Amino acid sequence: MHALRGAPCALRQALTVRAPAARPMAPPPSAAQSSAAQPSSAPAPNTQRQVLVSHILVSPPKAHVLETCEKQLAAGKATFADLARQHSECKSATRGGQLGWLEQGTYFPSFEEVAFATPVGQRAKAVTPRGHHLLLVTEER
User: What are 81-136's pLDDT values in tens digits?
Assistant: First the structure.
């Protein structure tokens, strides 16, 4: 029993947590190093220009329909989306003709050339292998 009295003290001494020896700390990372080491949650900026385009597509025999649409738009008798729903032969008609964001190299070159040359808020015509288009550029980024 006498030998056991010293055991708890030795055990206590063995289990004592000791602080590690002081080491010099590395300097904090610079702002450039810090941002480079951490992944960004924001998407990388898109370097290619994009336009948000809606269109009304008709087959060549119905190209005259686009003239009628332009007259109705100029007179304020209908919206582009309403006319697209009514006249367009494209699946986008259900979305008011909206194709979404267009990048160069993703659609017919003749369509893209017109779309990227048209100022925001303006309409223009294009002809592609799919038919005749009346397009409206609604945004740019």
Answer: 999 999 999 999 999 999 999 999 999 999 999 999 999 999 999 999 999 999 99
Residue with tokens 């989306």: 81
Q: Which helix (H) or strand (E) holds 33?
A: helix 31-37
Instruction: Considering only CA atoms, give the Rg of the chain.
Output: 34
The CA distance from 130 to 56, in Å, is 12
Record: fold of 61-140: Chitinase A; domain 3 (3.10.50)
Please give the torsion angle defined by the CA atoms of residues 106, 70, 64 and 55, in that order, rounded to the nearest 10 degrees.
20
Domain chopping of the chain, boundaries:
61-140
Q: What are phi and psi of 114, to 5 degrees?
A: -70, -45
